[in-house]
Design a protein that fits this description.
The protein contains 23 helices and 2 strands. With 500 residues, it is an all-alpha fold. α2 runs antiparallel to α3 and α10 crosses α13. The N terminus is likely disordered.
Length: 500
Amino acid sequence: MIDYFDYKKNTSKGRKSAINGKLVIYILGKLLLIEAGMFLLCMGISFLYEGLDYIYFVYASLVNVLVGASMMLFGRKADRRMNQRDGYIIVTVTWLLFTAFGMLPFYFGGYIPTITDAFFETMSGFTTTGASVVNDIESFPHGILFWRSLTNWIGGLGIVIFTIAFFPMFNGCSQQLLLSESTGVTHDKIQPRAQVMARYIWFVYIGLTAVLILLLFAGGMNLFDAICHSFATTATGGFSTKQNSISYWDSAYIEYVISIFMIASGVNFTLYYFMMKGKVKTLFKDEEFHWFIKSVLSLTLIIAVSLYVYNDYDAEKAFRKALFQVATAHTSCGFATDDYVQWPPFTWLLLIFAMISGGCTGSTSGGVKNLRMLLIFKNIMNHFKQILHPRAVLPLRVNGNVASYQISTNVYTFVATYLACIFVGWILLMSFGVELTEALGTVVSAIGNVGPGLGIYGPAFTWASLPDAAKWVLSALMILGRLEIFGILLLFYKGLWVNR
């Protein structure tokens, strides 16, 4: 049986490069055909609502088919064996290609007339950031609105994971691609087979989306809006069909329902699978889940009290607005029902903490992830104990399992790099003329895939007035955050391309 993951075997066959270039191009071409199929789905929505935007999806689909078919033709005779380096390149370039070609309907139709803005909007969609440069979203036809929401939904669990789950096109390469897209702290595997695991997770994802559609429809949304907002909620993406986001409906019911599903989407999806298998205790014993829920509730209560005291909200409204904004920040969703820029300034810092923390590993949320925060906290506690008891052996345990020294090192390296990226992005945006507070808010929001920032780029405004250079920097931060930094930075490491 051929081992598709043995790099030594690949090189022993005479490959002169560390990268199987033709295979990479072949697979990327196949993936572009998948995106062309998504365009055709949106074209069907345009026909259903008698919109004229269908033609732009036809044009975009033709471009994808032409380029994708050419790439497949070029790589048709490629060696089908893939190594880890190929996997990282395929995953990273897939996100860039899907964004570059995904912006075509916006650009061709003149709905977003500049390449910078069209690329930014599409990158924001696929990375589930939810930041927008559109000032009149309700003027967009149904097909374009559906495409914005679909970019959120597909990007929520990952473009490549979606393809692995439903399109058996990678032969023995699925496991390598799955590992390449699921970077960072790993979580429990459900099945040893990558395709089976991806399908289980996607079935949970589809189930959550379907339930939310029914609840929102029952709460007064029409079916189209319910579908689009369910896509954006379970993906923690934040794209709305209304300029005022969820505030448009002025419904406490809708706010509570979306708040609950944002939090649910911030939980490790494998825990839901175990619950469906009858292992309900797995959820309630999970330490990361405990940390996440305690953080959401603590921040909600602190902010609710401050709104009650300082902003004269009644108790129910203060709790509801605090819960929604904390949920949207902690899960990196990006919806808004209140302008938190008008809240007491100390609450901004609490929301910044929520944005940086993000959701749980194995969820659709962005940010550092709560498992890393938990490991850092436990390391700090162990350090205090070590000071008092120098000879004590204090293993770092999570869910009863000992976390290795390597895992601790990886966590600290990731967090340090994450904060360094925030600092560099902050400096760059300020050099482009963005004010200090606004620069910090947009950078933290972009790398955490959150959406709203601070100041004039908070939940009440779009990011349209940002300089073009700032939009390209923020787009880069979005994909850095979505692929957990090292998947992108690895492309600039010389060792990736050298045959060793």
